Amino acid sequence: MRRLFAIFTMVAVMAVIAPGGLCSAAAIIDRGSSGEAVVDLQKMLKSRGFDPGSLDGVFGPRTEMAVRSFQEKLGLVVDGIVGPQTAEALRSDFASRARRLLAGKTIAVDPGHGGWNSGAVGQGGTREADNVLAIGLELERMLKQLGGRVVMTRRTDKELTGPGSSDAEELGARVAVAERAGADMFISIHNNAYEKNPGVSGAMTFHHGGDASGRLAARLLEGITGETGLEPVGVEWAGFYVLRHSRVPATLVEIGFMTNRQDEKALSSSAFRSRAARGLLVGIVEYLGGR
Ligand SMILES: [Zn+2]
Fold first, then answer.
1. Residue 90 C-alpha to ligand 1 middle, in angstroms?
2. What is the pTM of this model?
3. How many structural domains compose the chain?
4. Distance 129 CA to ligand 1 centre (A)
5. CA of 67 to the centre of ligand 1 (A)
6. Ligand 1 geometric centre to CA of 92 (Å)
7. Domain containing residue 57
8. How far is the CA of 55 from the centre of ligand 1 (A)?
9. Which CATH number goes with the domain that contains 74?
10. What single-letter DSSP state applies at residue 4?
């Protein structure tokens, strides 16, 4: 099963980033298969608009129907079996679609906080500012690899304005970065905190109204939860400064809760940060695809 897992777990992006490592496996997944490889297959199908039913890791009738629909759409042999050809199609299909949709687009990526403003600090001492910078830089790398243009509001552990500046000045500077670059969308990355109940875990996304921002928030939540396994807490309206003042579709994502031990621990790992970035990438691509 490890090899199967290797085929799908990185399919969405890593095939583009490390094409050598994933092409040799000739494993087959079909009706009756189960496990992580099937969860990854189901996530991929779902993110592409094919409904595999619940993401339960069991290759049942609905997952088979989704595989058949995918095969039919791509002109492959329609047998409901994921062999090397269908696995490769799932891989290259995402990459080529992502390249096509990202061409000519500028994504503003805003890792929240930084410098003197650490954001939320977990019990283990993890700083939100560090987590979101790592996720943001990984997202930048992935987007650029697929031909997207990226403008970062920060690339180091620094705020844009000095100590003594107001929140409005700092956040205004971030919105201005996106505007100067003519960004097509603004994505602010944060980790949540809820002191009252450390049991609360999961991901949320926020927008300030409008069809495009709402869609972007919804696709990003699907992407994050699909790739990281975090529970979806919700897509909500919010009047945050960066959302209110952005003239382009804007979303603020809260990936995990710093007040939750498990979320905090996950957020400190580079593997999880990478999955979170991949989730954002998948969400961006699906949004650009019009979903
Ligand atoms: Zn924050």
1. 35
2. 0.80
3. 2
4. 8
5. 39
6. 35
7. 2-99
8. 29
9. 1.10.101.10
10. H
- Based on the domain organization, do 159 and 258 belong to the same domain? yes
**120 C-alpha to ligand 1 centroid (Å):** 7
- Using alpha carbons, list the distances in angstroms from residue 218 to 23, 136, 207, 276: 32, 19, 9, 15
Interval between CA 119 and ligand 1 midpoint (Å): 5
Domain co-membership, 46 together with 160: no
Q: How far is the CA of 256 from the centre of ligand 1 (A)?
A: 11
Residues 89 and 143 both lie in one domain? no
Asked if 226 and 162 sit in the same domain, the reply is yes
**DSSP string of 30-95?**
-TT-BSHHHHHHHHHHHHTT---SS-SSB--HHHHHHHHHHHHHHT---SS-B-HHHHHHHHHHHH
Q: Which of 79, 99, 119 is the last residue of a domain?
A: 99
- Amino acid found at 48: R
Ligand 1 centroid to 61 CA: how many Å?
A: 42
41 shares a domain with 111:
no
Which residues are close to ligand 1, an ion, with C-beta < 5 A? 112, 119, 190
Query: In 164-210, where does DSSP find H-type helix?
Result: 167-180
Taking only the tens of pLDDT, the chain with its 291 residues reads 333 333 333 333 333 332 222 233 447 999 999 998 899 899 888 877 899 999 899 999 999 999 999 999 888 899 999 998 898 888 877 888 899 999 999 999 999 999 989 999 999 999 999 999 999 999 999 999 999 999 999 999 999 998 789 999 999 999 999 999 999 999 999 999 999 999 999 999 999 999 999 999 999 999 999 889 899 999 999 999 999 999 999 999 999 999 999 999 999 999 999 999 999 999 999 999 887
Of 71, 99, 127, which marks where a domain is finished? 99
Give residue 24's pLDDT: 31
Same domain assignment for residues 219 and 185: yes
Structure tokens at 61: 């009738």
What's the CA gap between 224 and 45, in Å, rounded? 15
